[in-house]
Amino acid sequence: MRLGVDVGGTFTDLLLHDDAAQRTYRAKTPSTPEDQSIGVAEGVRLICEKAGVAPSDISLVLHGTTVATNAVLEGKGARVGLLTTAGFEHVLHLAKSWTPGPLFGWIVMDKPDPLAALSDTRGIPERMDARGNVLTELDEATATAMIDDLCGSGIEALTISLMHSYANPAHERRLREIVQERFPDMHVSLSSDILPEFREYDRAITTVMNDYVRPIMTRYLGRIEKRLGETGVDSRLHIVRSDGGLMSAEAAAARPVHTVLSGPAGGVTATAMIARRTKLPRLLAFDMGGTSTDVSVIIDGEPTITRSTDVGYFPAKVPTLDVRSVGAGGGSIAEVSELTNSLRVGPRSAGAMPGPVAYGRGGTEPTVSDANVVLGYLPPKLLGGDMSLDLDGAREAVSKVGNPIGLSPEAAAQGILDIANEVMLGALRVITVQRGLDPRDFGIVAFGGAGPLHANAMAQVLGCYPVVVPHNPGVLSALGFLEAEFKNENVRTLIGSIAGIDDAHLFAVFRELRGQAVDWLNEEEVAEADRGLTYSVDLRYEQQGFEVTIDVPADLVESGKGLDAVLEDFHATHDRLYGVRFDLPIELVALRVVATGATPAVNEAPPSAGTTDVSEAVMETRKGFFKGEWQDTPHIDRDRLAAGARVEGPAIIRQYDTTTVLLADHHAIVDDQGNLLIWPNEKGE
Questions:
Q1: Among 289, 344, 523, 585, which residue's Cβ finds the most Cβ atoms within 10 Å?
Q2: Looking at residue 142, what is its pLDDT?
Q3: Which SUPFAM superfamilies did the record assign (predicted)?
Q4: Which of 483, 472, 383 is CA-nearest to residue 2?
Q5: pTM of the prediction?
């Protein structure tokens, strides 16, 4: 029994998979922003009750969390002290000397305060060069006095990020020893541990971010493990990494910066799984929740991994799934702008409390979910009848923004949905059109609590077909956590021309990194049969500023026979990504070894019960607003549909964890895996 837990801004989603019976159970419970562990514990009780099992039967808990992300975005992290090389105290202020352009962008830029204040920064007398040679010995007496002053000032965590420590971490490690001798309870992170790569600002800000969220993450993980224990769960807790891998709770507490995109990672992993199983190689992941929408691209059944992401204004150089997020969700608030007297939606959100007006929890401002209620796209009850909606309250709230600009409730609701859809379309265009990809070559996978409500409208504009609505769309991110594998990356910066690097030394470094990877696999207790190791190098043309990661075959590392095939792969990859290849010397930048630990696949038995006669699955007929008029619209119970069933639009397809809107001139087919595939009538199956 494996449990996936996804804490969102509005709902906490849970999915329990019984490996033996090949069955899944799902549950949604309101999130508790004041203490997310409360909502998680309540969800565990609810899903165990649904499955008829005891919490002690759960063998593994896999959790995606936004704790680290929210702490940075809201500026509510810990007070961090920074030890850096003397003369580089302003590293976080200078950053990359970048301001938005053109001139007006620079004038209006509101530059955020660094995550570690200058008053909490100390310059340590020491210096390494880029080869790791000591230029200035560490002045331990002065360093000790600075540490006493800084750690005694009330900081909650300490970052040590010295120049060129990626090449020689000796001074950083000695400073940590001094801190631990004098302040044993202090959270300390070394840049040579968190990001042993060149580029001093990236290394410093990533390590500072790790400490900025570390005390908060440590407290949160302690609370959630305590709550789970009180509920009766005695299995190990694992946290989902930003790159879709898994790490232990202990590792997440030490390196929380690797969880900054933990939440969206599950949905991307699940979308890649769907691509492989449906044989649809090119898909767009469309995850619309209550607070935000996350989109990403799947090509040839694999997600894109990027080596850097932005959390608000701050870069974090950690491996992440390439996800674009926008502030549009079911809880996004609609209002009339005082300046333009026009309708706008988001990024403000009603969140879980008070939530949309229709939820009846005290919300007073109209949201996207309220607009869906007004147009008849949401039924009077959600979550299998456990949650009643205030239909009249939603209509009254939407009228408040429609009346001042002369719109009927229906027109205002349609306007709210159109604006929200346009915001989300902008994100989809960024990851397709702006990268040279034609969205018409992709299908779109709709998930999240609100994704299936809007995906058909998205596909209609972009031409992305089919729309795939998985069997468990509302809790698909939690399912993705169950599909994730344990993962950790070991890297070594090794800059120089390929022509001048000794191959024997290069492969010796690979083997050293492999030893570190094996040690990590041992710590995570990954069985031998489940282990995997992959090797890669970061390469660039001479004088380029950025690198391309190229895989290195394992047998090449073992034999040490040279890199000719890898270099040719680099030329071809550069040509594919950027449309050009150069006859220039190639530089090596870094070597990487990624360790993985496989987890069992989620094999759910395909739907066998149900009917292909859609009329037998109709729950009721209600009014729905389509093509500018009210129409009698069938509400269909998805759980009664068997593989092969075909639903003609317009229709509302209901299930426990979400509602799917099928537009007019479209149809939906249930495939043999239980997915709904939506096509326009003029094409498709």
A1: 289
A2: 97
A3: Actin-like ATPase domain
A4: 483
A5: 0.82
